[in-house]
Amino acid sequence: MKEKSLKLLTILKYLPILFFSTAVDNDFYFLYKYGEYIILNKSFPHNDFLTVNNPPIVLQQWLFGILSYFLYEIFGKIGIIIAQDIFAVLIIFSLYKLLYLITNKEITANCLSFLFSLPFVFFCTFRPLLVDILLGILMIYVILLYKKKNNSKVIFLLPIFSLLESNLHSSFLIFFFLIPIAFLMDFKEKHFDFKLFVNLPLMALFSLINPYGLEAVLYLKNSSSKYSTYIAEMNRSNILNIGGQIALICIILLIFSNKTKEKKSFPLILIFLGTFCLTIFAVKCTPFLIISTLLLIAENIKNLDDVKILKKFFGVYEIYIPIICIIILIFGLKNFSGIIEKEDFSFKKAVDYLEEIAPNSTLYTTFYTGNYSEFKGFICYSDARMETHLKKKNGVENSFEDNIELAEGIINYKEFLKENSFNYYLFDKAENSIFAKDVLENLEYEIIYEDDNAIIIKLL
Asked: What's the predicted TM-score (pTM) here?
């Protein structure tokens, strides 16, 4: 019965993937345009080609953009969703291998991997964060493999990871440097780990191998805003949001699993503390906290009997594991079946209509409406790339903050329209913008398109 349960557990940890989002993430649309530009022009842009103000730009996600472009061109939307799920499988499998390396027990590693895949449902969409998570797991795995198995060859994969990160996303590059530094601070070791230390300058050197050099490495410089918390994933974690709730659960799980008197891994404690701080500052870092928590739990329970682990997780596991598998399959397949029909945005029909009658026009857009509009070929006012549209970073325009202040009535709509003019204006009704209200109540315009969700107008 234990062998049958192990086989089901091996499958069970992947089944929550069926509940992952079947809508294309908003960021995909500008990533696609990045890839399209690079492939068609055979060059890397240094000014933004998607918005009217053309601020200086660093495409730190250029390689992920090319991946997005080819996936969509060849397979369409379903290719994006399947690629998202393939990344998820790779992440869960890599985490399983890492947990197995710590515990040397398949059942324990499978149970903990399943524990990760459940909350991962809320964070897994096709975007570069998936690459960050996968590379972070692989980096810890390589260092632990080097430490535990005395495999000195694998340690020189670390510079390759920094090279990949600097070309696929770059946002978590600094965190990647902190991982080997945490292991260098392992005071239980009698000798200084020179081989691991040598990798730090190599990682720095390899991270500079990208089309934008040092600019991509320092991408996060001046990338914060007083309105950063208007973006859900950039909110600070608290007990009222998912980041804070998961952080609390992680602490509780660590307390309950900490029943052994063995010395804990100091590097893993440091990584946990680092990911905990990251999660407090930004909800999007929560998957890293979950992973670091599971690594410490694995250390705590690695000497427990496998059957005890199964009973702690599933009770009468011979009955409940098959039942859980069946329930997840039934409801998960129902969710996944909506992959083609599901509308991704409330304003999609409005933008699609405008594309038919006035392609390639200039269009007033916001943080939420800009990405898909750019994907359809419009030259937009703003989009979801906060860092690109901060004046302290680009030196030209400040449309991210200006849009928020327009929506809240801080900037007068007449002053804005004196300095900015567009062929058309797209207003998503759900945004409840004061700017939209002022324009629609006080100015003369022609309605180009309107439904329950959005309105497109042309000022007269």
From this structure: 0.91
